[in-house]
Design goal:
- By secondary structure, the chain is an alpha+beta fold.
- It has one domain: Arc Repressor Mutant, subunit A (Orthogonal Bundle), CATH 1.10.10.
- The protein is 55% helix and 14% strand.
- The chain contains five helices and three strands, in the order ααβααββα.
- The protein has a three-stranded antiparallel sheet with strand order 1-3-2.
- β2 and β3 form a beta hairpin.
- It is elongated and about 65 Å long.
Length: 103
């Protein structure tokens, strides 16, 4: 995720309160992730609502999902998260050019 379009999609996905809660919960879960059932129970979201929000985060590249038997384990794509943070902070404190005088 190094360009404006990819970053904008990821930020748009995180721009919904429920999706931000889901993402932060999964960040806390770490590399092991959590099952869809665990996410639903922790955040008290109906299955259909949760599925919609998870799909948005997966499409934005922020989450991955893997079927393990009867369960679906969802994990943060930490490499994508780090790339987004790097993109946002890449030019931190580098200064900006003074505006040109327009006559």
């Amino acid at each position: 995720m190094t360009d404006h379009a990819d970053s904008a999609r990821a930020l748009a996905a995180l721009g919904h309160e429920a999706r931000l809660h889901i993402f932060r919960f999964l960040v806390r879960a770490g590399q092991g992730g959590a099952t869809v059932g665990q996410i639903a129970a922790h955040l008290d979201l109906p299955a259909s609502t949760l599925a919609h929000h998870l799909r948005s985060l997966v499409t934005a590249g922020l989450l991955t999902q893997e079927r393990q038997g009867r369960e679906v384990v969802t994990r943060v794509a930490f490499d994508r998260m780090t790339a987004l943070l790097d993109f946002l902070t890449a030019e931190c404190c580098s200064g900006i050019a003074a505006p040109r005088d327009v006559a």
